[in-house]
What does this fold into?
Amino acid sequence: MRPQIIIRNIGFVLLFNAAFLFISSIVSAVNGDSAFVPLLYSAVVTALIGFFPIIFAPPVEYIHNDEGLAIVVGGWILSSLVGALPYIMWGGPFSLTNAWFESVSGFTTTGSSILTNIEALPLGLLLWRSVTHWIGGIGIIVFMLAVTPSSGQVAMILYRNEISSLAVENFRYRTKKTFQILLIVYAGLTVIETVCLLFAGMGFFDALTHSFATIATGGFSPRNESIAYFNSPLIESIIIVFMILSGIHFALIFLGITDNIKKIWKSSIVRYYLAAIVVGVLLVSINIWGVIYESLWEALRYGAFQVVSLGTSTGFATADSGIWPGFSILVLIFFSLQCACAGSTSGGIKVDRVLVLWKSVASYFRRLKHPRAVVAIKLDRTVIDASVAEAGLIYIIIYLCVVFISSLILTFMDVDIMSAFSGSVAAMGNVGPGFGSVSSFSNYRMLPDAGKWVLSVVMLLGRLEVFGLVLFLFRRLIK
It folds into this structure.
């Protein structure tokens, strides 16, 4: 690998972060809050670190896949490091560990927090906290590639290492066109939701930051009580709609808008995704009706929001689902594991892999019944290659192993089993809230520092879909 090429491209990533840090510092200065100096210093330091490699390392027309992997992994880790700088400099509840945890949680769009009083943060720091969601939602590297003059080959290698392999296979566009589509849909949804929330009665700052978190499927709210603070069925309905949209493959949304809206519904993946949400909402609402909420309307209102929130890995909350019956909690844990579609901003295993798994199981039983039959696995009349199905199964196995190992480590640190398991599921799926002591109206502050570092690694593993980070860390052992 050529270190100069890696640090040059990571330099662009850092400059991109510095620009948003600077914007946040301007907001802080206008508001006259205490985050101005931490944000400005962080912006200057980040810009200097990012600027020098670009001067001394020349651009190239070709990079190796290993170099692309190093750029992507390095970009995410260094972004999380510089993202923690304003937290550390501002102080308050932000120790080194807490600042790192909050930064990683923001960039990976996990939405887990160590804060007990979010509203105590100055406006500029709250904006930066939300901005880390928005940058991380579509992917730091995708943002960087859209605004830098990278060659087509360099851009595509970085792109393939940045997003889900399933999403790469599903895109039918090339390089710059792909980035443009992603950013048009991403920015467009953000603007439209912001306008809708303004009309629903939110202030501009609340509308903007909640839109950042919704479209990124992140979940950071500037309010202590999350969406429950507003106590508005209209606001909740708007956010539900945009959470669902943000869980659909962005290329399908683009095709639906520019060509034929029916193309979205023709996707068996989207149909399964929406059907699963409907079934989940009904199961949870019926289970909590008469037990937690007296009226069916209230059960549907709160059940629907929590299922969609966790089922898209957003992590907003309108109720404390930690006190719900065990059946509802298990349903919500399933959705925290599965989440939404590849090619969206959602985390989790992805409904694409789950659907391929179900079809693989059905195919296996058909072969047991008819040993000589050739049974193909199909999605939307397209035959799925055996290697794709195998990769999906391997991914699910590794994914669940990471959750189990993380849970095991946390329980060794005397974290109760529900908090350890659900917190690991939430971290790996970039979901945010778990259950037990890390439920939707609680936070991760009381976890031991070592546990926060473990979950930070798990969050990065989930955001990079395991393979990227594992290949980067153990590339010398994997021949």
Remarks:
- DSSP finds 21 helices and two strands in the chain.
- The first helix runs from residue 3 to 31.
- Residues 1-162 form one domain.
